[in-house]
């Protein structure tokens, strides 16, 4: 099922494409939350803190994988918009071959660097071993993450956001079942959560591949396409590397923030972990809007329709602002009942709640600037501009780093929590200004020669 996003009313097209992505992203977060909820309730609060303390590292390595594979598929989206059927197939084959190489490198580096990285992040001694076990399993199974994201991105590149959702829902349900089997039945602890995540995501990758092979001939390369081509490799790496680095740079900032949170002890880490899981859940609408704009802008850029891209950006910004206000109110209301899901009855919630409330209350005020980042950044990336979105990540890193170091030097937890809003404000301003520049640059390129 393909979707041509170069036709129809922009807002209607965008919202229709976004909804399945939103549902899929929510399920993605739910099965990530399943790890922490089941670990927290079936093992201990310290085990929950151990899994939570690796969240920013997971964002680094998984985000890098997501970024580079999403970059590889931008070329596919542009060629689909330009009606270049053979070019689409070449880009698919080339992206798969490049992903194999990137997976080998990324897995090796992750496994080698994990122990010193956890020490650098001030991981508390009482949760260090569990944190190391969990993140090493995730790192070892990166191949499943890379190829699930690659195949899903290929489907989205040609306008199909429904099928990745179906496989993701299946995977989320399977992940919860495996969590319960490995942790509650076989008592595998945090290692069981890691194995459940990798196995369920691997099954999603296989299902996506089978669907593409059987039902999506436009994405099925032929024998002549299976070789690395200099032109495609250069184009895909030019888009993929900046997107991967942008994720990595943003993740580096969140790791510095996590280091600031870690100095307040395992109770603070556990409460922060639970609160951030709720926040990540409600952020998925913003992320889905960004994913939509990457495909929307890619197809319309391939067609050469800048006016339609601008209309889509305005529509998505309006929708994102409404969503940001709604979910800000939602997290304030749901924090207390949701926090109890992560802990057993013997945990003193009066100790956990102040840490969680401080983080959520500070962040929720700034959801509107956060929502703009995804629209501007993904629109630029969809049009093939990778450097400026990456520099938006640098602005996030700088803001988080400055605030985190001040927080650590003053031992201020509220200031540590403000790392996220500071990053959102900086990146929102930078990407908004960058989008104006990119829009003018595209207009010059598309202007007829005089």
* Bulk shape: globular
Number of strands: 0
**Residue windows where pLDDT falls under 50 for at least 5 positions:** none
State the helix count: 17
Q: Give the amount of beta strand, in percent.
A: under 5%
The average pLDDT score comes to 85
Instruction: Work out the helicity level.
Output: over 70%
Mind telling me the C-alpha Rg? 21 Å
Main beta sheet strand tally, sense and closure: none
User: What is the H-and-E element order?
Assistant: HHHHHHHHHHHHHHHHH
- The rounded distance between the terminal residues' Cα atoms is 41 Å
Distinctive features:
450 residues; single chain; mainly alpha
Provide an overview of this structure.
- This protein is mainly α and 450 residues long.
- 85% of the residues lie in helices and 0% in strands.
- It is built from 17 helices and no strands.
- The protein has helices at residues 10-42, 45-53, 55-81, 85-120, 125-140, 142-157, 162-185, 189-215, 230-262, 266-282, 284-303, 306-339, 349-364, 367-382, 387-410, 413-417, 419-446.
- Helix 12 runs antiparallel to helix 13.
- The chain is globular.
- The model has no long low-confidence stretch (mean pLDDT 85).
In brief, what are we looking at here?
The protein is mainly alpha-helical and 450 residues long. The protein has 17 helices and no strands.
């Amino acid at each position: 099922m393909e979707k041509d996003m170069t036709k129809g009313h922009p807002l209607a097209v965008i919202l229709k494409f976004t909804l399945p992505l939103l549902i899929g992203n929510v399920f993605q977060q739910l099965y990530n939350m399943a790890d922490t909820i089941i670990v927290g309730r079936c093992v201990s609060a310290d085990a929950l803190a151990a899994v939570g303390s690796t969240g920013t590292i997971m964002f680094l390595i998984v985000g890098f994988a997501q970024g580079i594979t999403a970059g590889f598929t931008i070329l596919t989206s542009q060629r689909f918009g330009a009606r270049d059927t053979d070019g689409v197939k070449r880009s698919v084959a080339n992206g798969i071959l490049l992903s194999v190489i990137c997976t080998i490198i990324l897995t090796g580096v992750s496994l080698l660097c994990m122990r010193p990285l956890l020490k650098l992040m001030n991981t508390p001694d009482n949760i260090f071993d569990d944190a190391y076990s969990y993140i090493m399993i995730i790192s070892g199974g990166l191949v499943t993450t890379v190829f699930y994201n690659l195949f899903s991105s290929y489907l989205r590149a040609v306008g199909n956001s429904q099928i990745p959702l179906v496989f993701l829902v299946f995977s989320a349900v399977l992940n919860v079942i495996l969590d319960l089997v490995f942790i509650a039945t076989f008592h595998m602890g945090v290692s069981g959560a890691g194995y459940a995540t990798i196995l369920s995501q691997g099954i999603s990758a296989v299902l996506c591949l089978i669907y593409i092979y059987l039902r999506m001939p436009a994405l099925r390369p032929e024998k002549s396409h299976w070789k690395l081509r200099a032109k495609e490799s250069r184009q895909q790496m030019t888009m993929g590397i900046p997107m991967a680095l942008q994720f990595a740079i943003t993740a580096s900032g969140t790791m510095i923030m996590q280091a600031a949170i870690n100095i307040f002890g395992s109770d603070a880490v556990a409460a922060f972990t639970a609160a951030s899981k709720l926040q990540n859940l409600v952020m998925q609408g913003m992320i889905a809007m960004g994913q939509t704009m990457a495909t929307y802008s890619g197809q319309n850029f391939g067609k050469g329709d800048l006016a339609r891209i601008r209309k889509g950006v305005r529509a998505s910004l309006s929708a994102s602002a409404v969503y940001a206000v709604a979910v800000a109110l939602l997290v304030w209301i749901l924090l207390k009942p949701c926090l109890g899901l992560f802990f057993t009855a013997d945990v003193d919630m009066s100790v956990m709640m102040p840490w969680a409330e401080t983080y959520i209350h500070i962040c929720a005020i700034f959801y509107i600037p956060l929502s703009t980042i995804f629209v501007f950044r993904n629109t630029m990336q969809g049009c093939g501009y990778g450097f400026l979105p990456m520099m938006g990540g640098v602005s996030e890193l700088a803001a988080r780093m400055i605030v985190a170091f001040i927080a650590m030097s003053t031992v201020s937890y509220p200031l540590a929590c403000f790392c996220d809003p500071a990053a959102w404000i900086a990146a929102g301003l930078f990407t908004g200004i960058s989008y104006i520049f990119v829009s003018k640059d595209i207009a010059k390129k598309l202007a007829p020669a005089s």
